[in-house]
Amino acid sequence: MRHGGQILVDHLKAERVHRVFSVPGESFLAALDGLHDSGVENVVCRQEGGAAMMAEAHGKLTGEPGVLFVTRGPGATNASAGIHVAMQDSTPMVVFVGQIARGHRDREAFQEVDYRAVFGTLAKWACEVDQTERLPEYLARAFHMARSGRPGPVVVALPEDMLSARADVPDRPAMPRTNGHVTTSDAQAITSVLAESKTPLVIAGGPGWNAEAARNLARFSEAHDLPVACAFRRQDFMDNRHRNYVGDLGVGMNPKLGARLVDADTLIVLGSRLGDSVTGGYELLNPAATGKRIVHVYPDPDELGRVFHADLALAATGPDALAALVHTNGTDAPVWADWTRSAREEYESHQSPATTPGEVKLEEVVLWLSENLPEDAIVTNGAGNYATWLHRYFSFKQHGTQLAPTSGSMGYGFPAAVAASLEHPDRTVVAWLGDGEFQMTLNEMSTAKQHGANPIAIIANNGRYGTIRMHQERTYPGRVSGTDMANPDFAALARAYGGHGETVTDGADFAAAFSRAKAADSLAVIELVLDPQVATPNMTLDALRAVGENR
To answer: What CA–CA distances, in Å, run from 443 to 185, 448, 449, 459?
Structure first.
């Protein structure tokens, strides 16, 4: 006879879970008891939003479900931002939520929430386990659903009396992953579409990628001399130095790459949704009439044809398709050779830095990082204009080196860096953050210190919510409202948490500051004090205001 918490943890071990993230609560004491002496590391976080983003980042890094434990009511709702990231980013994740005792339901008991209703549209599946003896059934299904098809978050509510009750029930083994399969004939059908093209473009993105898939993408693009664009914040799916890589389709994309998306006569979409970020708000690719042939490979058949018509639709991941495509015959002297070469030249030209005002220039800092970080360094970021410098100027060289939310959630970058440092303690982990972004989850510096994570956080401090201010100046020029911030001394705050902290006011001092931060072998924060005019890689704050005034 085992209590439900022990049954749960025994299943985690069957799923080969070695680390979970949590904020403790009295609603799942039995699960905490099961984790005691289990060998499963419990990373105790400071707020459920940060914990959820750590679990999501773990899922991105490993390809296996990130596991989160939160308590009922406010614990669960705090975690919702990270669950939303996992859903939009197609990241496998299993969230365990404590729940009130079964006999107290429907009385609006303390912290009572109907999790099926709350998370029914936010997660891939939301359920509640009523019988202790059925835990193995629900757990096996939860992990299988999180992994298979289009991966995503699954929420499992655990009534506290169910979890503490005992049952004599056998464990269930982990279910194997199930995805679609691309056959040899499917791959030949894709290359047959290419044979009729003059200006093709490959778009790589979505779930299920690994280092082998990245190598296959390079091999396939070389064999057919195809230009490859990566989807929003999936830039590490191909070595950016490769002659066939032409940039990323996302926020702040190269306008010339956007024009090529418009001009392409054929799109080979490998694993990515054709969402608003990839298509420039559906303006670069009109769902009503695309004017081009589309081959769409995606693991969820319900997504195929949902927004855009596809001439060839295959239910599989991008890596599944590439495993077959690398065995197709290459294209000799394709008619699109000049198209590919000029697209690469436009990408390289876009990497030439546009000079921004002030003594600290983000373009110079990012280019220094790109040239000096180890090739396997992991770089994280959250949401904000500061990230566009990273997208534009950093060259990602290996798969598994970019962690960022395609959902555009603020607060993600630092928790993701903590999770990355825990999973890969031997690798350099850099969190590229804005001042507003960092302040949403900087309390997780305490988590980093407690568990031995050593990320280096670089804070672009312009004293405002920069993205919103950009839109504000364009729409209501000169009427600043709700976008300015009073910031702490970030370097001193890092030291207060027991880490290393520095402030850089002159870009010439950055390299030495980074060297000291790296040598500290601890949590480190480098604050970059920016000129107040810094707004985007191409426009100052005054220039944005002028655009708004002239509309």
So the answer is: 53, 9, 11, 15
Residue 551: the pLDDT is 84
Same domain, 24 and 108: yes
- What is the tally of structural domains in the chain? 3
Could you tell me if 462 and 486 lie in one domain? Answer: yes
Under 8 Å between Cβ of 270 and 214: no
Beta partners for residue 154, in sequence order: 94, 125
DSSP 275: -
503 vs 513: CA distance, rounded Å: 8
Residue ranges of the chain whose pLDDT lies below 70 = none
Classify strands 2-3 and 166-167 as parallel, antiparallel or unpaired.
antiparallel
Same domain, 153 and 211: no
CA distance 204 to 297: 10
Residue at 458 is within a domain: yes
Q: How many CB atoms are closer than 10 A to CB 204?
A: 30
CA dist., res. 146 & res. 314, Å (int): 21
* Together in a domain, 394 and 519: yes
DSSP 221: H
10 Å Cβ neighbour count for 198?
12
Could you tell me the CATH number of the domain that includes residue 336? Answer: 3.40.50.1220
* Residue 450 domain flag: yes
SS3 500: strand
pLDDT given for residue 327 in this prediction:
95
**What is the C-alpha to C-alpha distance for residues 409 and 1, in angstroms, rounded to an integer?**
43
Are 161 and 198 in a shared domain? no
pTM for the model: 0.95
